[in-house]
Structures are given as C-alpha cells and as structure tokens.
Design goal:
The protein is 40% helix and 32% strand. By secondary structure, the protein is an alpha+beta fold. It has four domains: 87 residues, conserved putative lor/sdh protein from methanococcus maripaludis s2 fold (Beta Barrel); 62 residues, OB fold (Dihydrolipoamide Acetyltransferase, E2P) (Beta Barrel), CATH 2.40.50; 149 residues, Helix Hairpins (Orthogonal Bundle), CATH 1.10.287; 67 residues, Beta Barrel (Elongation Factor Tu (Ef-tu), domain 3).
C-alpha cells in the first residue's frame, strides 16, 4: 500500500514538471519571434542664407612695452614713480649718480681746451708760413731786378771795353786800362752768373713745373697761380691745421658723448604711458643694462584673439569688430583689426589676430578677458539642423543618426556657428539626408525605426 502511494506521487511530479517545461519553451519561442520597432522623430536639413559671424575670445595686451635699463654703472639717487603711475613722454622717472662720468667730463673739457690751443698754434704757424711765402715772392722780384741791373752793368762794361780797345789800337788808351776793364767784365759776369744761380734756387717750389707735378695744371690767371703757389708751399703747415682741427672735433665728440651719457643718467619716459613694474629702490647700486622700470604705452590697447584657419579669408586689416569686456562693462567697444599674423599655429590650426581699441581713460588692463564678434557681411547658404539632433558634440564636430531603409546609422558631421537652437553644418550631411531629432538614449546603430518627417 505504501509502495503504491510513492509510485503515484512520482508520476504526478513528472507530469507537473513536463507541463512547466512546455510552458517555458512556448514563452521563450514567443519572445524570440517578437521584435520592437523604435518610434523616432525624423527631420531633414534646411537651407538658410546668412552672413557668417566669427566669434572668439582672448586677452588684452598693450600696444608697446619698454624695459627701461641703466645706461651706465651707478647709484640710484631718486625714483620718482611707483607701479601704476601715469607718466608723460620725456618725464624724468629716475636719477642715477656716477662720479666717474663727472671726472671724465672734466677730463674731456680739458682735452677740448688743449686741442683748441693746438689748433690756434697751427693756424698761427700757417699764417706766418703764408707771410713768408709772400716775402719770398718779393725776394724773387728783387732777384729779377738785381739780375736785370747786373745785365746792364755787364753790357756797359763790354761797351766801354770795346771803346778802350779801339782807342788802344790808335794809341788813344793805355794797355793797362784795357786790362783793367777786362778784369771788371769778368767780375761782373761772375756776379751775374751767381745772381742767376741764386734766382734758380729761390724759384724751387714756385715754378710751373712744380704746379704741374703737384696739381697737374697751371692756372692761367696770375692771381690764381699765386694762390696755388702759396698753397703748395704751405701744405705741411695746412696739414698741421687739419690735424689740430681733427683733434678738436674728436675731443668735442668725446665730451658730447660723456655729456649725453650724463644726461641719460636722468632716466626719462620714452612716451606717455603707465609704469608697469619697478625693479629697484633708491640707494641701490646698479650696473649697465640692469632693469629699472617697465612702462606700457597708453592711449590704446590690443585685443589679441585666435581665428580658425578656415575663417582667415573672411577678415582683413582695418575690418571693424565688436568687443565685450565683462570685467569693465557689458557695453560693446568698437575696434579695428590692426595685425593679422602671417603664420598659422600647426597644433591648433588658428591664426593670431590683434584689434586696436582706443583707451584714452586707461580703463583697460593687460590680461583682461574679452569676447569678440566679427560680422563678415558675406551672404552664404548653409545647412541647418536643430541643436537637439546632435550628440557627442565638441567644438568642431558632433554625431547624428541618419535614417536609411528604416534603420539608423550614426555619422560624424562638422559644425559651424550656432544660434537660436540651430547649428550650421559645414560637412557630413546633404539636403537629401533624413536624421533623427531628439534621439532616444537607447537608440543604437542598425536599429529599425518607424518615423514621419516633421515639416
């Protein structure tokens, strides 16, 4: 009886287990044959005309920065400005003392006086030399007269000798008288020859040949010839004057250099600007080239910002831009592009641009953050899609789901500017494409969808 009970219990358990297995298999089969189709919102890109606007940001910089350094070794006796002070062009902002420069100045002043005295001496010697040449001209003229006088004496003596010789032949004169005349004539001839020799010696330096050898020409005018002869015979003295004049010029130049250096020891601002930094205090010693102050030019500042490589053709020097500096105010400041860098950063693909902003009130400071907007005024066509249709978005690209044959596939697109919930597509889509708007979070590549295109 007991065995039959266990037998029936076992059969009932087997029947129940078989029934459960059939139900599970039926349930699994039903699940595997049922596929869910995702309902999505579909749209197509739209075309719109627009004037591209370039937006960027950057920081302000000064148009000119100058590091003011010491012109010579010395001691700071006065610094008349502090960091942030406004200075005028030419204003003395620091004073440096240098005893050696003052000593050098005294030495140079003495050297100038000495060279002037040497010049005066050389000029006096030249004047004396010129007078000596004038006296030599007179001496030459006197020699000519003496020669002419001796020629007359010789001619008269010869005539007298001829008469006496004729008288001697008729016993009208004695032989001794004739001999005496012969001796006299020989004496006059000797004196005449000596005068000619002396004149020839005295003419050295005063001959036409001398002028030809030196200048290669002989002036036709008598006065000009005389001046050239004076110049020829005083060349050494003239050269001494030139040397003395050069010494005067050299010593004066050295004195001026020292005076300029002493003047530079009163350090002046190179332009109207602002003191940006101060590196030394009064009483400290300083060496040549050590920094004293840094100044920045005031009146205007640069707004420096990057522009993408693809936008470079849309900007130009002189182009107006609108700048907002949040730390100053929400007002829009007008500026113009002043510089466009000729090179592109190979890492970022950007080009550096500087716009010049007027800053007469000195309210802008270096390093201030700003935003810039550039209206290109060039009407173009663009593809637009809603901002809600993209995902995995970064600065220049994003992804969308494109619907093909009722299935979705993700695609990377390149982005342009965006405004009012619309994004400009620069690459990756066409007008014929259909994409998913507001894609569900569980949507995946290859999933089947049902959709209607929104108008």
């Amino acid at each position: 009886m007991k065995n039959q009970f266990f037998k029936y219990t076992f059969l009932i358990a087997v029947l129940v287990l078989f029934s459960c297995n059939n139900k599970t298999s039926s349930s699994i089969s039903k699940t595997s044959t049922t596929v869910d189709i995702q309902q999505v919102i579909a749209i197509s890109p739209e075309v719109s005309e627009y004037a591209p606007v370039i937006n960027s940001f950057g920081s302000l910089t000064f148009t000119q920065k100058t590091d003011i350094t010491s012109p010579a070794d010395g001691k700071i006796t006065s610094i008349r400005v502090e960091e942030g002070d406004i200075v005028k062009a030419g204003e003395i902002i620091a004073v440096i003392d240098n005893i050696q420069l003052l000593v050098q100045k005294k030495q140079m002043e003495t050297a100038v006086e000495s060279s002037l005295a040497q010049l005066k001496l050389a000029q006096t010697e030249l004047e004396e030399g010129q007078r000596q040449i004038e006296s030599r001209f007179l001496g030459l003229n006197k020699s000519v007269l003496s020669i002419q006088q001796k020629e007359l004496e010789l001619d008269n003596a010869k005539k007298e000798y001829k008469k006496k010789k004729e008288l001697l032949d008729i016993d009208g004169a004695s032989k001794s008288e004739v001999e005496k005349l012969e001796i006299s004539i020989r004496g006059i001839e000797t004196d005449y020859k000596n005068l000619l020799a002396d004149y020839e010696i005295a003419q050295i330096g005063f001959r036409d040949q001398d002028l030809l050898n030196t200048y290669g020409m002989v002036p036709n005018d008598k006065k000009a010839r005389r001046e050239k002869l004076i110049e020829l015979n005083t060349r050494t003295l003239s050269a001494q004057v030139e040397v003395a004049e050069a010494n005067v010029a050299s010593s004066r130049s050295q004195l001026e250099s020292v005076e300029l250096l002493i003047d530079e020891m009163s350090v002046k601002s190179p332009y109207s600007g602002i003191v940006g930094a101060r590196y030394i205090e009064e009483g400290e010693r300083i060496k040549t080239g050590d920094q004293i102050l840094t100044t920045f030019k005031r009146g205007s500042v640069y707004a420096e910002f990057p522009v993408q490589e693809g936008q470079i053709t849309q900007i130009y020097t002189g182009m107006p831009v609108s700048i907002t500096i949040p730390s100053v105010s929400l007002d829009i400041f007008k500026a113009k592009i002043a510089q466009i860098s000729p090179t592109i950063d190979p890492q970022s693909g950007n080009i550096n641009v500087k716009a010049l902003i007027s800053d007469s009130d000195s309210k802008f400071k270096p390093g201030m953050f700003f935003k810039v907007e550039i209206n290109t005024n060039e009407v173009e066509e663009q593809l637009l899609i809603p901002d809600s249709s993209v995902f995995d978005k970064n600065d220049s690209s994003a992804r969308v789901f494109v619907i093909k044959n009722n299935r979705v596939f993700s695609k990377t697109i390149n982005l342009g500017n965006s405004s009012e919930g619309k994004i400009c597509i620069t690459n990756g889509l066409s007008l014929k494409d259909v994409i998913v708007d507001e894609p569900p979070r569980l949507l995946r590549d290859g999933m089947e969808v049902s959709y209607e295109i929104e108008k």
